[in-house]
Amino acid sequence: MKYNPSIAFDEMSGSAKGVTAAKTRGRKYIRNRGYGGSTRTSFQSSVKAVFKQLSQAWQGLTNEQILAWNAAANTAQGKSVLGTKAKISGANLFMRLNYWVVYCGGNIMTAVPNLAGVVAPDSATITLTASAMTFQLATIPSDVTNLKLVIQASDPQGNGITRAYSKAAAFADPYTPVATAIDIKSAYDSKCGAPSAGSPKVFFKYFYVNTATGEKSGDVLAQAKLSSE
Length: 229
What we know:
By secondary structure, the protein is an alpha+beta fold. The chain has helices at residues 42-59, 63-74, 90-103, 185-192; strands at residues 2-3, 14-16, 19-24, 27-32, 77-79, 85-87, 124-128, 133-137, 147-153, 169-170, 182-183, 201-210, 220-225.
């Protein structure tokens, strides 16, 4: 099944962990990535399940609710997978915002929320050793109500890899922003495997999500390399 892209996926291109951004006849869309076998990863299944849930919810909206989402979309702009500005539909806006609400554990919004934007997170210090892996933001907003931090990371990469941010994917549930270091080693190792001397690099992408509106901030990129204790 194909899904029209929205500003929830403003930097998405190609395939990444079960979804593919593509373009045909000048129209951009997002679909579940095709695989030769019948085995699906948990990420593929969860993404498909969320979009199926949202599609059914959109079809269940009243005419008045659909008109409200369409009107809101007329004042919003998204970005295509090429990074250029593009208008989005009411269904696109509904999917875009509700995807992150559901991702963070909330309930689907049928009414259009008041959109105010989300500022991107500050820079982070990432410590990576054989026994520790921590993530610490330089600063956090004074009010973190309804704010979640989503951290995505690549599998361990070799020394010859200089840029693998497109391989970054979620490995843990969204975090509540804190000023102290967040221990991410157990969650990362369980999902991606522990970095080693042969594959010491990890590429990160992180951002904030407003769980009340579904708004997502811009992405911040970072990388870490395995160091001695």
